[in-house]
Amino acid sequence: MKKFLLLSILILFSFxxxxxxxxxxxxxxxxxxxxxxxxxxxxxxxxIQKIENWKGPFIDPFNGLPMINSQLTSLSSPVTPGFGLGFxxxxxxxxxANLRFTPGLVFADVIVNYEFExxxxxxxxxxxxxxxxxxxxxxxxxxxxxNFRAYVIGGAKYSIxxxxxxxxxxxxxxxxxxxxxxxxxxxxxxxxLGLDLYFEFFKLSPEIKFSQSRKSVLKDSDRLENPFxxxxxxxxxxxxxxxxxxx
Length: 247
Prior knowledge:
Elements: H1 2-17, E1 33-50, E2 72-76, E3 80-94, E4 97-101, E5 104-108, E6 110-116, E7 123-127, E8 130-141, E9 148-163, E10 185-198, E11 203-213, E12 232-246
Antiparallel strand pairs: 1-3, 1-12, 2-6, 3-4, 3-5, 4-8, 5-8, 6-7, 8-9, 9-10, 10-11, 11-12
């Protein structure tokens, strides 16, 4: 994150030196359709909704014994970093509105911590994900002031998890070794804001955006046999993205 902030400061410093130039950006705003690419820093976590008796212990339906012989004291998902890269397709709807399709590849792990009364039994589940993101949004932008304009953006995206340990078959594993699994396909809603900064031959747009899954992503087909799924009612995937768009 510090590297992104330093890069942003350097970009803004360079931009201030060029503010007197008019109509920079390589004519990108005059094109009906234009393309670009993006880099992203992503901060991810789960929003966890617990069942009423989430502390357990939870009973194995096959032998009638606790799957983990202790009660939970805490169930949390700390923020974890990730990154992404992708492309930009921008279609001009009018002077102050654009339709944007920004597909990308995202590498984002999510962690869930299970803390028990017996500290030696505490567990951490790392859900490793590689996502193909397909966002579609409407960008509403202010009038251009020399080489600057502000904008807000909102929309939705569809994500496909193409590589993830959480989908590994864990039937043969003991209860304390099972995985926390989430759905492969996810629909999100998104909202954010950003700046368009115009340089001589290109446009740079730093943007910050919040995303959250529309529905629970918990894969609960085996919840009665999994002590890491049993205490959770719903699980929402959410993240904050800091992006740099080059167009």
